[in-house]
Structures are given as C-alpha cells and as structure tokens.
Amino acid sequence: MHISSGRWLYGLFLALLTAVLWGVLPIKLKEVLQVMDPVTVTWFRLLVAGSILLGYLAASRRLPTFRALGKKGIWLLVVAIAGLTGNYVLYLMGLNLLSPGTTQLVIQVAPILLLISSLFVFRERFSLGQGVGLLVLLIGFVLFFNQRLHELLTSLTAYTTGVLIVLLAAFVWAFYGLAQKQLLTVWNSLQVMMVIYLACAVLITPWAHPLQVLELNALQGWLLFACCLNTLVAYGAFAEALAHWEASRVSAALAITPLVTFASVALAATWWPDHVQPEQINLLAYGGAVLVVLGSALTALGPSLLAGWRARKARLAALV
C-alpha cells in the first residue's frame, strides 16, 4: 500500500501546477484546432510526450518488460490504450464545438464516472460525504446550463452534440482509469504512460495528417509544442503529487481546473481578443460552475472527511 511522503505543501504545489496546466490547455488547443484536425493534434501530443519518456527511461535503464504483464495485463493495456485514445480524440472533437470553459467543466464527469465504476470493480465504498458532493455537482450542472437546458433536452444542435461528445470522452476515460489503476501494480507511472502514449500514437497514425503542421503559423506552432509538453509535464506533476499527498486531497485540488479555464479565458479574451472569445454565460452559470467544483472536491474528500469526523467523535467520547 502506498504511503505519501508527508510533504503536503510540495504535493499541493504540484497539484495546483497540474490544475493550471490542464486549465489553460483547452485554450491553446482551440487555437491549434483552427488548422489541424483532432486526430492529428492528438497524434503529435502523444508521439512527442511518449518519445521524450522513451528517451528518459532508456537512458536510465528503466524500460518496462511486457513479460511481467501476463495475459490479463495485456488485455488491461489494450483497454487503457483504447480508452485514452478515445478520450483524447473525443475531447478535441467536443472542444471544436464548445467553448474551452464548457468543455473543461463537462469533462469533470470523468473522475466521477471512475469513482462510480470503482464501486463495482474494486468494491470501494461510497460514503455519505461523496453522495452529498455528487448531489451538489449535479445541481451545479443544471445551473451552469440554465441558458441552454431546453436546447440540450429537446434538440440535437451543434452545442448539444459537443456536450454529448465530451460526456462520451469522460466515459471512455473511466475505462482507461480503471485499467491504468491495475497496470500500476506491475509498472510505474512513467512506464505506463510511455507505453500507452506511443501505442496510442501508432494506433491513430493511419488517420493522422502530419503535414498539417506546415500550415500552422508561428503562434499556432508554438502552441502545439506547448500542448505536447503540457501532456508530459501535467501528468508528471500529477503522478509526483500523489507521491507526496493523499490521493483524495490531490483530486480535490484538481477540481479547480474548470475555474482556472474560465479565469484564463477571461484574461486571454482581454489580452488577445482576435484569438480568444469570452465565455457567453450568465452569472447563474458561473455560480453553477463553482458548485460543480465544490461537488467534485466533496466527492473526492468524502471518505477523508467522514474518517476525520469519526476520529474526532471517538476522541470526544474518550474524554467524556
């Protein structure tokens, strides 16, 4: 069983760094998608990140061995590859139809789906605190979509299609998360990431158009490169944060990612109005976004909060 190092401040810094990197990512991707298709952007991101990891692991003589996986491990790897590939491509397809803030908020469903799946696969418990968090999250989504709730429920517009595609991206990510959780019992996180990234890149190569990179202007080219590094650094910071801080608290810190996106869009729309459009939502929708974040954090912290409450109750009982 993994025990955190106790360097919670360093873990908090890494978690917040991950949230910031993931928060600004859709803004950069949105600009690149004006020229490149989602599959090609995904291909570049996975190939660059996987190649860097391959070079690092080869230099440090820590390349993974497939013999250790066994037949079950191979099937888990296949599920993880299919899940992450689907998640990356579907997320960008949805981003093509939605704003960065909306996309980032809807994808918050992914860890919730992973949690619900874990209840059945790993027989994990679902606490009262997590139930409250889930309810707050659902109320937040209703408020966020208050301006377009009728559209979402009655017609298949481009906006509705985008939301459904991002929800599907969240759904397949849950399969990836379940498979990766098991693979980490055989390989470390860097080995898992390297194999999955490169395998995903190979898988989508027939549908990628690498020469589209020549059509990018200087700004879009740098943004594509930044997206590739983001894929590597953000997941690296996330994995390192888990080594120094409890997973529930890391997940709670990452729940602020949509708020980072909304704030970044607002700033970018002011500084670069020719490239970034402001979010077209009202104050009630912003309040809903805050509730989604609070609900995600409560869902992540539910077991810890319940355990802390029980410990305090026991101490008070002992004093009496």
Short structural description:
This protein has 320 residues and is an all-alpha fold.
Question: Can you give keywords for this protein?
Answer:
single chain, 320 residues, 13 helices, 77% helix, 0% strand, globular
Rg is 20 Å
Mean pLDDT: 84
| Whole-number tally of structural domains | 1
Approximate shape: globular
Percent range for β-strand residues? under 5%
Written as H for each helix and E for each strand, in order along the chain, the element string is: HHHHHHHHHHHHH
Layout of strands and helices, then pairs:
Blueprint: H1 8-32, H2 38-59, H3 70-97, H4 100-106, H5 109-121, H6 128-144, H7 149-154, H8 158-183, H9 189-204, H10 218-244, H11 247-254, H12 257-271, H13 283-319
Helix pairs in contact: 1-4, 1-10, 1-11, 1-12, 2-9, 2-10, 3-8, 3-9, 4-12, 5-8, 6-13, 11-13
What does this structure look like?
With 320 residues, the protein is mainly α. It has one domain. 77% of the residues lie in helices and 0% in strands. It contains 13 helices and no strands. It has helices spanning 8-32, 38-59, 70-97, 100-106, 109-121, 128-144, 149-154, 158-183, 189-204, 218-244, 247-254, 257-271, 283-319. Helix 1 (8-32) packs across helix 12. The mean pLDDT is 84.
